[in-house]
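Moderator note: this is an archived Q&A kept for reference. The question asked for a predicted structure of one protein chain; the sequence and the answer are reproduced below.
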Amino acid sequence: MSDAPLTPDAENIAENTAAEASAAQSEKTPKGKKHKRPKEKFSVRLRRNRKKILISLTAILALGAVLAVILVPTHFSTLNEPADFIDLPVVSLSLDSAVTVEKSGSYIAHPDSVWVDDGSEQGKIIVMYPLGHGKGQIAMRVSYDMGLTWSDRVTGLPASYADSQETPTLYNLHFMDGSEKLVMISGCPYWVATKYKADGFNFSFSDDCGETWSEFEKFHSPADAIVAMSSLTQIKEGGQYIDKWMGLFHDHEFNVYKTYLTFDEDGNADWSAPELLMPDYSEETQKYGMCEVEIVRNPDDDTLILLSRAEKRVSRSLIAFSYDEGETWEGLKELPYELSGDRHKAEYDETTGKLLISFRQMIPVKRSAVSIYNRISGGWYAWVGTFADLMTYADDDPSNDSKGDYLIELGKTDYFAKPYNAVIDNGYSGVVCVGGTYNVVGYGSFDKVGTTSYIISRTFTLADIEKML
């Protein structure tokens, strides 16, 4: 082909030819769309970019190796153990010494229990727990020997128990006429990504020592009631008990509410309108994440003592005091590490004058400098001390604060088995004390693999435990 420049006529011919080609291409390609190049095969792209990919992978591996060299030694050199923060002696009980109420590869948890004098030699303990994380069908078992053996799951429970929305709580109400009534309460908070909406709480009762139970009755919908009732305290007037009980629950914003339970002449339950338990401390309750509040009465002077989980993990667990039957509260402050945890349940042993408090240990510190969680735990524990120990926190002098007598390790969990669940998912428990004998029923993944869910029972006297100190 000649390299001579085009003449004007030749230029016009070339321009027309290019325009015709462009028009033809426009007819083939829809307006507004770009002409697509043939899709290149993945294998072709891979071969063409092989060098870049190898360089990138090498860089990632090198970075990972550098981080490992830095972070792993940092983790182990700054590792915190619960024992680093505990001054009291600890009696550790092996899993082999526990009675297995139930174990499962599926999730079972959050038991509560109650003792009732049904006329049998040792009375009976009733335990209930959900077949799921809070929400789920309610299972019930019974022990006639203070928790040394347990029945199979009880059948014939109310149909409404099949769809409980929260962990059950159990109480035995003692009326001034000498009668008793067992009650079970199950909250109805909203659950993210489920059909459940905030719907108050469900109430069921038994007038025949737990042989039969009423269907759920709904109260105070649409309150967002979590762990209802975390405590249920009989009220006094003029120094004498009356047929009135103060129940507590909390919501997702960590507002703690109280509602009073009474019964009419026909035996029908009435729960008063929920109101804030501690309006003077509303900012603090939300700041600390106050929830799952337990209240125990000091038999020496009738002071009501509040023990609370602090979910925000910016503080240890909390304590406060009421000298007017829960109308007002004062002295809100942190408990020592020895009592720091979740879901405190307290029972008094009249034979020894000692108090046992069961709880899930939760110490608000990082596992190590590189941990993402601001909490560590050894599992399910019990604190043993006196009311006098707790009352040392009622004044403003920290120099006389008492840490109690000792701790009992009721169910150890292995941190490295399941770095999240096995450590903090345990402990919610029922606690009963009859004639100096304690029975506690709790849950957790106590095996070293951390894949089996257990409900376990322990029966002991404090004299038994103190022989192991």
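Archived answer notes: The chain has one domain: 77-466.
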